[in-house]
Write a structure and sequence with these properties.
Number of domains: 3
Radius of gyration: 22 Å
Bound molecules: adenosine-5'-triphosphate, magnesium ion
Strand order of the largest sheet: 2-5-8-1-9
Number of helices: 15
Strand content: 5-15%
Shape: globular
CATH architecture of the largest domain: 3-Layer(aba) Sandwich
CATH class of the largest domain: Alpha Beta
């Protein structure tokens, strides 16, 4: 798999939530279950999906990512299922293997699952139900053996409630829900990530880059609406414009201004739980039950203490 320079193949972070997530990845990788990774944009969902694949028994087979919102409707069938030679006008005479067949033996990553148009939702549901496909224009049925990982930065349960996502498909995907927390809720990871991105540039260019303590403080108090991807972009901006290898607050001021976000995030913003966490909590409580054991399990999954869970519940439910 090709990665850009500075692209981590590891899920870096020392926050309790990321440590917990790494543990969960390790556990689910050992099984063939369907995993649904949710979290805001840029939090690392694809990295989580790849980590699960890499740690699974399927690691030597393909990891096939499908951007569910980007397949042209008229080509969906041939792209997913493939086609036999001459199946339709314009089809190559040799036919083509579809993405699902390519993922056979490996992992199928349904990225941006919340963006699936209704017709694709119906096709995916059928595929997940019977694990079989037939190429367009073909008669042979191919048995599929693959691990499914879906990711969404929309809250899928909410999409179901709004009638935009099929409930039956949701329950096929929401088997093991994993949540990647926003960067603003794990400020202890910021330095580590910034250093990682910076070191990658240092190594690539033979220049020692460093971040001033003032800039680091600013990084740690910023809300990062674009999460880790945005942090990576900011570091790149700094590397691009720095003249002496030093990334300072002043150097990055124009970059912060471009993002149009306040200089300092009020405490309330950092402390307030995102809509995602609340949705995650509700969904997990339904799964594990609301008794003491259930709540303990939910707190464990979310990487928060039981006391914190109670605080959210009190605030959400009054
Ligand atoms: N914990 C992490 N450690 C190292 N790199 C990370 C981490 N989280 C994210 N990244 C990097 O940040 C970038 C964004 O991550 P990724 O593409 O996985 O996000 P995403 O959640 O799939 O975003 P989107 O919802 O926009 O598709 C990538 O370059 C990824 O390598
Ligand atoms: Mg992604």
């Amino acid at each position: 798999m090709a990665f850009e320079s500075g692209e981590s193949m590891q899920l870096l972070g020392k926050s309790p939530a990321i440590c917990r997530l790494r543990e969960q990845i390790h556990k689910v990788a050992a099984m063939d279950v369907v995993v649904l990774v949710q979290g805001e944009s840029g939090t690392g969902k694809e990295l989580v999906a790849r980590a699960i694949h890499d740690q699974s028994r399927r690691s030597r087979k393909a990891f096939v990512a499908i951007n569910c919102g980007a397949i042209p409707e008229s080509l969906t069938e041939s792209i997913l299922f493939g086609y036999e030679g001459g199946a339709f006008s314009g089809a190559s005479s040799a036919g083509q293997v579809g993405l699902l067949e390519k993922a056979s033996g490996g992992t199928l990553f349904l990225d941006e699952a919340g963006e699936m148009p209704p017709s694709l939702q119906a096709k995916m549901l059928r595929t997940l139900q019977n694990h079989k496909i037939r190429r367009v224009g073909g008669s042979q049925v191919c048995q599929l053996d693959m691990r499914i990982i879906a990711a969404s930065n929309r809250n899928l349960r909410e999409e179901v409630r709004l009638g935009r996502f099929r409930e039956d498909l949701f329950y096929r995907l929401d088997v093991i829900p994993l949540f990647v927390p926003p960067l603003r809720e794990r400020p202890e990871d910021i330095r580590l990530l910034a250093d990682f991105f910076l070191n990658a540039h240092s190594a690539a260019q033979g220049i020692r880059y460093e971040i001033s303590s003032g800039l680091l403080r600013k990084f740690e108090s910023y809300a990062w609406p674009g999460n880790v991807r945005e942090l990576k972009n900011f570091v790149e901006y700094g590397v691009c414009f720095s003249e002496n290898g030093r990334l300072t607050r002043k150097l990055l001021e124009p970059r912060f201004a471009l993002s149009g976000v306040l200089d300092k995030v009020p405490n309330g913003v950092r402390r307030r739980k995102s809509a995602f966490d609340v949705a995650c909590m509700e969904s997990l409580l339904q799964r594990y039950g609301s008794d003491m054991e259930g709540k303990k399990a939910v707190a464990h999954w979310m990487g928060i203490s039981l006391a914190t869970l109670y605080r959210y519940l009190k605030r959400e439910r009054g």
